[in-house]
Specification:
heterodimer, A: 166 residues, mainly alpha, Rossmann fold, three-stranded parallel β-sheet, B: 345 residues, globular
């Protein structure tokens, strides 16, 4: 039985019911506040996505918080070197749960052109868990917005991930 | 001037409560509690509207749309943000002074909400029309700085502490121009009572008589409410998020709530002191009051999204070397003006 069926037919047009879980999923997926952090050139595209032409604010994702304590989303934008890896991991650990990570661009996905270099981490998923990978070098702002909307779908439908795990 | 719509409503509700409880004292107590609940509801709703307004006006000024996907015209965006903040993990830093750190966000809301007790919302609609109304507002508003200091100190974080020290410096230097610019108005009305200040503007608004005091007051209020160009307390390029750096989830949301409550209080104070309060032709007083308050809030947001942030030394120099001498000069000019006015008539 669906939860909606509890409402009597007389009230169907006037009453909206949901679960706390559903409400939180709706709220979290509509208010992803990214951390103001960028590692290299992908960060320029990230800034561009928030500016007038692409306007990330339409979805309510434009609140870039400077403090990791108030951020929900970590956009790893750029090349991650082994020297930068400990601060990045610390920033991730300072964020409160539930937290999400987007790996933006080829370097963050798997090292990009520097994949074989001694100094570059071959993909940020070696350091922190990643929710969405966005390919591109750098990805266009539309690609970043699409990635964030995919993350929104992922937050709304966690059962899909559980199926894949099995 | 006729009594406001809200006064009649209150009298009507008191009669009903008296009928139900059968005791005039309990009925009046009930109505006072009801009024307090109503003012808290109004403040919370106003905060949600202001956050939405801020993001849409920011979009308007930067040639964007702003939030427009969540709910009709993006109206549910702030609601989603608030619910999300409630669901976030509550992180308490291991080295923080737990008790002080925990109570600061709750205490911060008290001075922010307490000043609403003396604001005249309509003719006769005022919680406590005390004889030292404007003095009370200045005294209570400046208590907020203690809590910024407390929160920054208790976080045991260098950025928080630097933000707290900046907050103290900034608010001390904004209080004095505010007090001196208000003094010119008090000299003209001869009363500290808020309702007297409003009724003194039935002929001409004080913005026309005291333009210099108005400009000083607006600039100093921007400093007092930590808004750009003076949002040095939360200057994210320099000190991350100032005193709020270590606060997450709902605790941070309380800081946010107090910030917008202060902004609303600043707008109400501007309207009451300079723009004739609830007075206006044709419409009921409360609707003029709401219109004027939101017009002032729009101006504050316009300023915020138009100007860049100043440096701390520029802000201090502006406050102590420009605003304070100008305010003192304004008091002298007002005194001379009042003397000449009395001499002529």
């Amino acid at each position: 039985m669906e939860i909606v069926d509890i409402v009597p037919d007389v009230l169907k047009n006037n009453v909206m019911i949901t679960t706390i879980d559903g409400l939180f999923k709706w709220a979290r997926s509509n208010s992803l506040w990214p951390l103001t952090s960028g590692l290299s050139c992908c960060a320029i595209e990230m800034m561009c996505a928030a500016a007038a032409r692409f306007d990330l604010a339409r979805f309510g994702y434009e609140v870039f918080r400077p403090s990791p304590r108030q951020a929900d989303l970590f956009i790893v934008a750029g090349t991650l070197t082994w020297k930068m890896a400990p601060p990045l991991k610390r920033l991730y650990e300072q964020m409160p749960n539930p937290k999400y990570v987007i790996a933006m661009g080829s370097c963050a996905n798997e090292g990009g052109p520097f994949a074989d270099a001694y100094s570059v981490v071959p993909g940020v998923d070696k350091i922190i868990p990643v929710d969405v990978f966005i390919p591109g070098c750098p990805p266009r702002p539309e690609a970043l917005i699409y990635g964030m909307l995919q993350l929104k779908e992922k937050i709304r439908h966690p059962e899909i991930i559980q199926k894949v795990k099995k | 001037m006729h009594e406001g719509l809200l006064v009649n409503l209150t009298v009507f509700l008191t009669r009903i409560a008296e009928f139900i409880f059968g005791n005039i004292f309990i009925a009046q107590l009930f109505i006072v509690l009801l009024e307090i609940v109503v003012i808290f509801a109004v403040i919370s709703l106003a905060v949600i509207i202001q956050v939405y307004m801020e993001r849409r006006i920011c979009g308007l000024i930067q040639d964007r749309f702003g939030p427009n996907r969540v709910g009709p015209f993006g109206l549910l965006q702030t609601v989603a943000d608030m619910i999300k903040l409630m669901s976030k993990e509550d992180i308490v830093p291991a080295k923080a002074e737990k008790l002080l750190w925990g109570i600061t966000p709750m205490l911060l809301f008290i001075p922010a909400a307490l000043v609403y007790a003396v604001f005249p919302f309509d003719n006769g609609v005022i919680f406590a029309d005390i004889g030292i109304g404007i003095f009370f507002v200045i005294a209570v508003m400046s208590q907020g700085v203690l809590l910024f200091l407390l929160g920054g100190y208790a976080s045991e974080n260098k950025y928080s502490f630097m933000g707290a020290m900046r907050a103290v410096a900034q608010m001390l230097s904004s209080e004095i121009p505010i007090a001196f610019s208000i003094l010119a108005i008090v000299m003209m009305t001869g009363s500290l009572r808020m309702s007297d200040i409003v009724s003194a503007q039935s002929g001409i608004w004080f913005i026309a008589v005291q333009p210099l005091a108005f400009i000083i007051f607006i600039i100093a209020m921007l400093m007092e409410t930590n808004r750009t160009p003076f949002d040095l307390v939360e200057g994210e390029a320099e000190i991350i998020a100032g005193p709020f750096t270590e606060y997450s989830g709902m605790r941070w949301a309380l800081f946010f709530l107090a910030e917008y409550t202060n902004l609303l209080a600043a707008a109400i104070l501007t309207v009451t002191l300079f723009l004739g309060g609830w007075q206006g032709p044709f419409l009921p007083g409360i609707s003029w009051f709401i219109l004027k308050v939101f017009a002032v809030i729009f101006v504050f947001m316009w300023i915020r999204w138009t100007f860049p942030r100043t440096r701390i030394d520029q802000m201090m120099a502006l406050s102590w070397k420009v605003l304070l001498p100008l305010a003192l000069f304004n008091i002298m000019a007002t005194g001379i003006g009042i003397y000449i006015y009395k001499w002529i008539y």
